[in-house]
Amino acid sequence: MGAGWCQQEHDFCGLLFPPISQRMRLLVRQARSLRLHFGSRTGPRPDILVGGLGQRTLDSAARYADAWNGIASPGGLFERRERLRRLCVAYGRSPDAVEISATVRSLVSD
After folding, report:
1. What is the mean pLDDT of the segment spanning 57-74?
2. Contact 26, 33 (CB under 8 A)
3. Highest-pLDDT range among 25-29, 78-82, 102-106
4. What's this model's pTM, rounded to 2 decimal places?
5. How far apart are CA 81 and CA 35, in angstroms?
6. Minimal CA–CA distance to 28: which of 54, 63, 4?
7. Axis-axis angle for helices 55-64, 74-90 (nearest 10)
8. What DSSP letter does each residue of 44-60 carry, written as one string?
9. How far apart are CA 8 and CA 15, in angstroms?
């Protein structure tokens, strides 16, 4: 899950591409809904993977995700991983509860 960033992909699929603030609200609402909807009464919940690099995306991953995915330089990924871990603790979750996957790009700084 993510907020989307590529308008061309949305256009190609015939999907609306609202402003980022609205896309972020949708991301949070969808991730929260998945967490709440699935449970013991409906069977196992699918894993939630949130992708992206922004503060609000990391916040959503810390609150609701089983995994987070990002793409950045090694330093940028390290910094975001530490931010994600702090957010997990702030929300009462173990930082180990969120698996991290990443693509490392060139060594240019973020």
Report:
1. 90
2. no
3. 78-82
4. 0.71
5. 22
6. 63
7. 50
8. PPPP-EEE--SHHHHHH
9. 10
Task: Give the number of other Cβ atoms within 10 Å of residue 24's Cβ.
Answer: 21
- pLDDT for the residue numbered 109: 52
Residue type, 40: S
C-alpha closest to that of 68 among 81, 87, 82, 55: 81
Of 100, 41, 31, which is closest to residue 64 (Cα–Cα)?
31
Task: Report the C-alpha gap between 105 and 23 in whole angstroms.
Answer: 25
Condensed to tens digits (0 to 9), the pLDDT of residues 11-54 reads 888 888 888 888 888 888 888 887 777 754 566 778 888 888 88
Residue 68 C-beta-side C-alpha neighbours within 13 Å? 30
Per-residue buried b or exposed e for 44-63, using 16+ beta carbons within 10 Å of the residue's own CB:
eeeebbbbbbeebbbbbbbb
Cα atoms in the Cβ-side hemisphere of radius 13 Å centred on 103: 6
10 in Cβ contact with 26 (< 8 Å): no
